[in-house]
């Protein structure tokens, strides 16, 4: 099975507290296009609505290939089983500063 990382950074996978695999940046970033809609002002604060619609830079499905994307992209892709995202919630591995440095599981 080939894994292609479509996030802008290396994804590290941990088991039992040890990093066992790295998925390097592939050079292509899948992302969700964002649109901003002006809603006017509320109590003198500018208010906008953001919508996230189209996913860009996600290749077509390919046999024996899994694409690793961000959680936001994964949430926009509900129909593809070849797209996974690192779990940055319960599965997150953090350093001493609290920064995410990897994951122990992926979301399908």
Describe the structure in brief.
By secondary structure, the protein is mainly beta.
Descriptors:
four-stranded mixed sheet, mainly beta, about 110 residues, single chain, 1 helix
What does this structure look like?
- It contains 1 helix and 10 strands, in the order ββββββαββββ.
- It has 108 residues and is mostly beta strands.
- The strands form 4 sheets. It has a 4-stranded mixed sheet with strand order 1-6-7-10. A two-stranded antiparallel sheet has the order 2-3. Strands 4-5 form a two-stranded antiparallel sheet.
- The longest helix has 6 residues, at 71-76.
- The radius of gyration is 17 Å and the shape is globular.
- The model has no long low-confidence stretch (mean pLDDT 94).
Strand content: over 45%
What's the overall geometry? globular
Radius of gyration using CA atoms only: 17 Å
Q: What is the ordering of alpha helices and beta strands?
A: EEEEEEHEEEE
Largest sheet: 4 strands, mixed
User: Terminal Cα separation, in Å?
Assistant: 16 Å
Secondary structure category:
mainly beta
Note the total helix count. Answer: 1
Number of domains: 1
Mean pLDDT: 94
Percent helix, as a range, is under 10%
Instruction: Catalogue the unreliable spans.
Output: none
Number of strands: 10
**Neighbour order of strands in the largest sheet:** 1-6-7-10
């Amino acid at each position: 099975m080939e894994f292609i990382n479509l996030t802008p950074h290396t994804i590290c996978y941990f088991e039992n507290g040890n990093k066992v695999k790295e998925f390097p940046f592939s050079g292509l970033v899948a992302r969700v296009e964002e649109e901003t809609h002006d809603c006017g002002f509320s109590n003198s604060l500018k208010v906008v609505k953001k919508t996230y619609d189209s996913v860009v830079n996600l290749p077509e499905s390919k046999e024996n290939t899994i694409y690793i994307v961000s959680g936001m992209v994964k949430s926009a892709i509900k129909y593809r089983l070849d797209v996974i995202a690192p779990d940055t919630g319960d599965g997150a591995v953090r350093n001493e500063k609290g920064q995410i440095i990897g994951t122990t599981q992926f979301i399908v």
